[in-house]
Write a structure and sequence with these properties.
heterodimer, A: mainly alpha, MetI-like fold, 13 helices, B: alpha+beta, six-stranded mixed beta sheet, five-stranded antiparallel beta sheet, 20 strands
């Protein structure tokens, strides 16, 4: 065997080993979470380290209990409502804003585009207390829409930034052609820019959804009544409860994780396309 | 059917003046070509007509309507872009139907027009393909088809052939000329390629630094350039320029340079008299210089002595680059010429085709 082949072989083995290692790191907790949530409570108590799950032992009891008795159905709906609403608003507003800074010439454009990310200079915890006071005053506390508003403020800057960079890669000629062909500015955005930006918008939607879905700090601060809880807030609620088994907690965690994974898998094709789209001459 | 009229049109980008009080008319059904080097303001002028750039000062009319503040979609113009600007997410059919759909034409009418234009441009079999599945030449046709289908008052072309390879460019040039015959619509066409300008245009407008240097038919601009810039820009290879003086001896005028003294034909005396004793630039096109050994091709006349430096055969002719004492000259001579590098030879100068320009202003005499 030539030296080069030996070297390639070693590299391939290392490459595979590395991948396996990280796959294990990522997948193992997830696997454990699913196993623990599906196993009968007794078996879990007898040997918590037994990671094997035989089909005969499967039980959905924990899910039913979490979903109905512990109101996770409600939390799930709340989380879905807040996240979807945030995504809708973020994508709509970010598209318009990003288009404006990417394409239109107006006074203060450069300042505006650069100042968008300034909001990230303030950590969430710093603004949490003033926001609490403000929300109390305006009656937005304990209101899911108040949460949407604050998530919007969190996701919009990055969303604008991402879409802005993407819009700049689109050839302006396309939009000008559409202007001449008979579109208004909004028509151009709707008929040309948006269809061509679907990969970028899918990325933004996914990112926004994840932020809104996973957010805990403000949900914890602002939501008082359990009927308004989101999933992250709900999990803390049962984690604090000493009477709740690990099995229930794991089932709750699965319920909180699955939508994100599902969404990611559904949009993955778009994401990959978005990364390679620039390679083709328009 | 419409005339386009620009009156004192100026465009400024911040401090920079891209287009400087341009007055220009494209007559009804005329093929007007705006030509000039890159950055001369020709594309900006076209974009102002399209409505893609705001006019800083002046007025633009299409027909009798002032269109300064009319949005592009309401100007009834169609534009073909340099990179074609086909919508990548639509197939050819939808690309061509797009503008018609927006104008709310009945579907049957749209279908009729798209198919008619596709037939005219021989792209019928491409209708269901996406732009990325087409070659450059096919994309070019679709872009033209999209414009033609709209049946606009005015066509605007922004360097439409510059992304094609040389052979295809010549072919498309021919088709463009043929299309113009058929469509009988006003066309404003921007290019930096003076051959394209010469072959396509009814009239050429030569621009430089935002200013219209000369407007005229291709032969007018070629034969009687108004200034040094136009003389140097139109024609290939470029016109030769030699710094000289106009002198008079015994009632005859001469062009006198460090390298040669050439008699000015008597017929031109009136025209060039005011250049007497002035510093001028003498201009002669390469195709008006002849290899003196090739008898019979040119009746004779004034001769200059040169040393050949480079010989470039292009098939139909030979391009010779030679030096005199102080200047370099290019000649485009008969391919039978025996010129070889480092050879000393004589050239006839067709003084009937000479040009004189003022050295300071660059204006032609």
């Amino acid at each position: 065997m030539s030296r080069e082949r030996v070297e390639t072989g070693i590299l391939q083995v290392l490459h595979g080993a590395g991948l396996l290692f990280f796959l294990f790191l990522v997948a193992f907790p997830f696997y454990w979470m699913i196993v623990a949530s599906l196993k009968p409570l007794i078996l879990l108590a007898v040997n918590p380290l037994d990671l094997w799950l035989s089909p005969g032992e499967l039980t959905l009891r924990a899910y039913k209990e979490v979903w109905f008795q512990f109101q996770f159905g409600r939390y799930f709906t709340n989380s879905m409502y807040v996240s979807a609403f945030t995504v809708l608003l973020t994508v709509t507003l970010a598209t318009l804003a990003a288009y404006t800074i990417a394409r239109l010439r107006f006074r203060g454009r450069i300042f505006l585009s650069r100042s968008i990310l300034i909001i990230y200079m303030f950590p969430a915890i710093v603004i949490a207390v003033p926001m609490y006071a403000l929300y109390t005053k305006f009656g937005l506390r304990n209101d899911l829409h108040g949460l949407v508003l604050i998530y919007l403020a969190q996701t919009l800057p990055v969303a604008i930034y991402m879409l802005h960079s993407y819009f700049k890669t689109l050839p302006p000629d396309l939009e000008e052609a559409a202007l001449i062909d008979g579109c208004s500015r909004l028509g151009v955005i709707w008929r040309v820019t948006v269809p061509l930006s679907l990969p970028a918008m899918a990325t933004v939607a996914l990112y926004t959804f994840m932020i809104a879905w996973n957010e805990f700090l403000f949900a914890f601060l602002f939501l008082d009544s359990p009927s308004k809880f989101t999933l992250s807030r709900g999990i803390v609620q049962i984690a604090d409860n000493i009477n709740v088994s690990q099995q229930l907690l794991m089932a709750a965690a699965v319920i909180a994780t699955v939508p994100i994974i599902g969404l990611f898998l559904a949009l993955e094709r778009h994401l990959v396309r978005g990364l390679t789209a620039g390679g083709v001459k328009a | 059917m419409a005339e386009i009229r620009l009156e004192n049109v100026t465009k400024k980008f911040g401090e920079n003046t891209a287009v400087d009080s341009v007055n220009l008319t494209a007559r009804d059904t005329e093929f007007l070509v705006l030509v000039g080097p890159s950055g001369c303001g020709k594309t900006t002028t076209l974009r102002m007509i399209a409505g893609l750039e705001e006019v800083t000062e002046g007025e633009i009319y299409i027909g009798s309507r002032k269109i300064n503040d009319v949005p592009p979609k309401d100007r009834d113009v169609a534009m073909v872009f340099q990179n074609y600007a086909l919508y990548p997410h639509m197939n050819v059919y939808r690309n061509m139907a797009f503008g018609l759909t927006l104008r709310k034409l009945p579907r049957s009418e749209i279908d009729l027009r798209v198919k008619e234009v596709a037939k005219l441009l021989k792209i019928e079999e491409l209708l269901w393909r996406k732009p990325r599945e087409l070659s450059g030449g096919q994309q070019q046709r679709v872009a033209m088809g999209r414009a033609i289908g709209r049946k606009p008052k005015v066509f605007l072309f922004d360097e439409p052939l510059s992304n094609l390879d040389a052979k295809l460019r010549v072919q498309m040039r021919g088709e463009l000329a043929r299309l113009h015959e058929q469509l009988e619509t006003t066309i404003v066409y921007v290019t930096h390629d003076q051959v394209e300008a010469m072959t396509l245009a009814d009239r050429i407008a030569v621009m430089d630094k935002g200013i219209i240097m000369q407007v005229g038919s291709p032969m007018e601009v070629y034969n009687n350039p108004k200034n040094l810039f136009v003389a140097g820009f139109i024609g290939s290879p470029t016109m030769n320029f030699v710094e000289a003086q106009v002198t008079s001896e015994n009632g005859r005028l001469f062009v006198q340079s460090k390298d040669f003294k050439l008699g000015i034909p008597v017929a031109f005396h009136d025209r060039f008299l005011k250049a007497r004793d002035r510093e001028v630039v003498f201009g002669i096109r390469p195709e008006h210089l002849y290899d003196a050994q090739m008898r019979g091709r040119f009746p004779g006349g004034e001769k200059i002595k040169v040393n050949i430096e480079v010989v470039e055969p292009i098939g139909s002719a030979v391009i010779l680059i030679a030096s005199c004492a102080s200047a370099h000259l290019t000649a485009c001579v008969d391919p039978q010429s025996s010129a070889r590098p480092r050879m000393a030879m004589e050239w006839f100068v067709d003084m009937n085709r000479m040009h004189l320009f003022d050295k300071t202003t660059g204006e032609a005499y």
